[in-house]
Amino acid sequence: MKRYASLFVMAVVMAFCLTLVVGAANAADKIISTTIDQSVTAIDKNGAEYVRLIINEDRTLQGVKYQMGVPVMAFGSLVEKAKAFQPGDTLKAIVSSKEYKGNTSYSVIAFLD
Question: All domains of the chain, ordered by start, with CATH?
Answer without folding.
Answer: 29-111 (2.40.50.140)
